[in-house]
Design brief:
Blueprint: E1 2-11, E2 14-20, E3 29-34, H1 41-59, E4 75-83, E5 102-109, E6 113-117, E7 136-139, H2 150-153, H3 155-158, H4 160-163, H5 177-191, H6 196-208, E8 219-224, E9 227-231, E10 237-239, H7 245-265, E11 282-286, H8 295-308, E12 312-317, H9 321-324, E13 330-334, E14 345-346, H10 349-357, H11 360-364, H12 377-392, H13 400-412
Parallel strand pairs: 3-12, 3-13, 7-11, 11-12
Antiparallel strand pairs: 1-2, 1-4, 4-5, 5-6, 8-9, 9-10, 13-14
Helix pairs in contact: 5-6, 12-13
């Protein structure tokens, strides 16, 4: 399953906004959402999650959906169009199965909350059922293994569709089940080395420990009742919960994603023969994917994920220009501004190329991050000073001190200016 279109009408800050891919595009890849604070990046992802899991599951998240309707309106709509995978996505209930794209809507009312809009494509037979396939998941910015609200943790078992998206709805939700799942696989491996669980664990460890996944050659060392242990670059053994925020942010999400894929497709056979690629389709939202990641990791994380999850459609939000560089296979979207002056749209043409291939200054000059972001006010003053010195350098009374200062400013801005006074 992939998303072809998401349209929000009167939802939160969105009056009307449509995210849509072309018919000729491969929907899998790296799709980036940009926007200022308050532009609705998290709201967009939550709304998409609600459409994908349905009102029954969404209401279990304890979210007040009546607050989602745009101020001054009585109701809003979340419209979605899906591309089904005829191999993996199974229908519920006997009857005619549409082979074309599947479209449906969810109504959000400030009185009734969430309701299904009756259409020809009933989502109860497709994406809202609990049959194998139709995979989607969302991960909020607070990705961790511990410290979650125990009441929410119960939903990982009682609400399977919501469980894949649960962390997007609150800050106090931890992905604790991942650690228990790994320990359970280890116990089953000890019981039978030929079991499916043993095979899955072996493949999973090989996948995690492949080159370039975790920086500085950090690898998964062992799994036991005492914990999950990794080995760092200094050959020191470290419990998974004691790793740095960056490692825990990525590992908690990746391990939980694999766990949910295994449960959704009801098979442990999700890897390719080399165990370097997860070979099943789906949609994964990641809010603030750059959180806790060093700049070098921000630049690589999208490339790594799309390489090793080639059939997954990643839709991620970020404030980082480095995250955009992985969208060569995908798209970049600027969300509407909260003041309504910018309607939001897909970024194309020269601004897109600056984001994909330019340096940071060129990316910021694309306009995708708003105006007046390229340089600070102090930098602008220094540039004005340099411009004045360049002008004065043609005068006979231009001093040695002024030339020294001019060269200092040229060095600061790495300008290829070599104008000498005569």
């Amino acid at each position: 399953m992939y998303i072809k279109k998401i349209e929000l009408e009167n939802i939160k800050s969105f009056k009307r906004f449509k995210w849509e891919l072309k018919d000729s595009e491969n929907p899998a890849g790296w799709h980036v959402l940009l926007g200022k604070n308050g532009s609705g990046k998290s709201s967009f992802i939550r709304a998409a999650a609600v459409a994908l899991i349905g009102p029954t599951e969404a209401l279990k998240s304890r979210t007040s959906f009546s607050d989602w309707v745009r101020k001054g309106e009585e109701s809003g709509f979340i419209r979605i169009e899906l591309i089904q995978d005829n191999k993996y996505d199974l229908w519920a209930v006997k009857g005619k199965q549409n082979k074309n794209n599947i479209s449906f809507s969810t109504k959000v009312s400030n009185v009734d909350g969430l309701t299904k809009v009756t259409e020809s494509n009933d989502p109860d037979r497709t994406v809202w059922n609990n049959k194998p396939g139709w995979f989607s998941a969302s991960y909020g910015p607070f990705r961790r293994f511990s410290g979650g609200n125990s009441d929410y943790q119960k939903l990982f078992y009682s609400a399977p569709l919501l469980a894949r998206h649960l962390s997007i709805f609150g800050e106090d939700i931890a992905l604790t089940e991942t650690l228990e799942w790994l320990k359970e696989l280890r116990f089953k491996e000890l019981e039978s080395s030929e079991s499916d669980s043993a095979k899955l664990l072996k493949n999973l460890i090989q996948f995690i420990n492949q080159d370039e996944f975790l920086p500085n050659n950090v690898t998964l060392e062992s799994i036991s009742s005492k914990g999950i242990v990794f080995k760092d670059a200094f050959e020191t053994k470290v419990n998974i919960e004691d790793l740095s925020d960056g490692y825990r942010s990525i590992l908690s999400m990746m391990l939980e994603l694999i766990r949910q894929l295994v449960q959704c497709y009801q098979t442990s056979d999700i890897f390719d023969e080399s165990c370097s690629v997860v070979d099943v389709p789906g949609v994964v939202f990641i809010d603030e994917v750059d959180v806790h990641l060093h700049a070098t990791w921000q630049r690589k994380i999208g490339q790594w994920l799309t390489k090793h999850f080639p059939k997954i459609q990643f839709i991620v939000s970020t404030h980082s220009a480095l995250i955009c560089q992985s969208a060569v296979s995908g798209s970049i979207w600027k969300l509407p501004s909260s003041d309504g002056n910018d309607k939001g749209a897909r970024i194309t043409g020269l601004p897109l190329n600056r984001l994909l291939y330019g340096n940071l200054l060129e990316a910021f000059s694309s306009g995708a991050f708003g105006p007046d972001i390229e340089r600070s006010e102090n930098a602008q003053k220094l540039l004005e000073e340099l411009a004045e010195l360049n002008y004065l350098s043609f005068e006979d009374d231009f001093t040695t001190e002024q030339e020294t200062r001019r060269q200092e400013l040229i060095d600061i801005f790495a300008l290829n200016a070599n104008i000498k006074s005569e």
